[in-house]
Write a structure and sequence with these properties.
By secondary structure, the protein is α+β, with helices and mostly antiparallel strands. It has a single domain, classed as Umud Fragment, subunit A (Ribbon), CATH 2.10.109. It is 13% helix and 33% strand. A hairpin with a 2-residue loop joins strand 6 and strand 7. It is globular, with a radius of gyration of 16 Å. The termini are far apart.
Length: 165
C-alpha cells in the first residue's frame, strides 16, 4: 500500500503538478524569494498559453545558468505569437494597444523595450513583474512555447502567502 502511494505521488509530481521555489526577486511583488508555487504541467495540453499567465520554462541558451542557478525560470507571458511588443514612456503596448497590467506595483515602468519586437510563431515574450530586476525577453529574447514546463497557479509556502495566482 505504501509503495502504491509513493508511486502515485511520483506520477503526480512528474506528470501533473510540481512545486518550484522562487530563487530571485524578478517576480516581486507577485512572488517573493523563497515562495513555493505549484505548477500545472498539463495545463497547456488542454488549452493555449494566455497573456498574463505565470509560466515556468526551461532556461534558454541565451541565458546560460551560472553555478547554483536554476535550470528553469518563471516569468509572466506578455506577448503571444505574431504580436508586436514595445514600451513607450514606461508603458507596454501590444499591437499598438496599451497593455493593462494590474499585477504591477503602482509606478512600475518598463524600460529596455524601446524598439518593437515581433514575437515569432511558436514563441512567447515573457517579463518579470519586477521590471527593474528581471532577466527576461527584453534581454534573452523570446522563448519557444515548447520550452514551457507549465503554468504556476498557486503559492503554497510560506503559510502567510498561500494564495492563487
Amino acid at each position: 500500500m505504501i509503495a502504491g502511494a509513493v508511486l502515485v505521488a511520483l506520477l503526480i509530481r512528474n506528470f501533473a503538478v510540481q512545486s518550484y521555489r522562487i530563487p530571485s526577486e524578478s517576480m516581486m511583488p507577485t512572488l517573493a524569494v523563497g515562495d513555493r508555487v505549484l505548477v500545472n504541467r498539463l495545463s497547456y495540453d488542454i488549452h493555449d498559453v494566455n497573456r498574463g499567465d505565470v509560466i515556468v520554462f526551461r532556461r534558454p541558451a541565451t541565458s546560460p545558468a551560472a553555478p547554483g542557478e536554476p535550470a528553469d525560470l518563471i516569468k509572466r507571458v506578455v506577448g503571444l505569437p505574431g504580436e508586436t511588443i514595445v514600451a513607450t514612456d514606461g508603458m507596454v503596448y501590444v499591437d499598438d494597444k496599451l497593455l493593462n497590467e494590474p499585477y504591477l506595483p503602482d509606478g512600475e515602468t518598463t524600460l529596455n523595450l524601446d524598439e518593437p519586437v515581433e514575437v515569432p510563431d511558436d514563441q512567447l515574450f515573457v517579463m518579470g513583474d519586477n521590471r527593474a530586476n528581471s532577466e527576461d525577453s527584453r534581454f534573452i529574447g523570446t522563448i519557444p512555447i515548447e520550452s514551457v514546463v507549465g503554468r504556476a497557479f498557486a503559492i503554497i509556502w510560506p503559510i502567510n502567502r498561500i494564495s492563487g495566482l
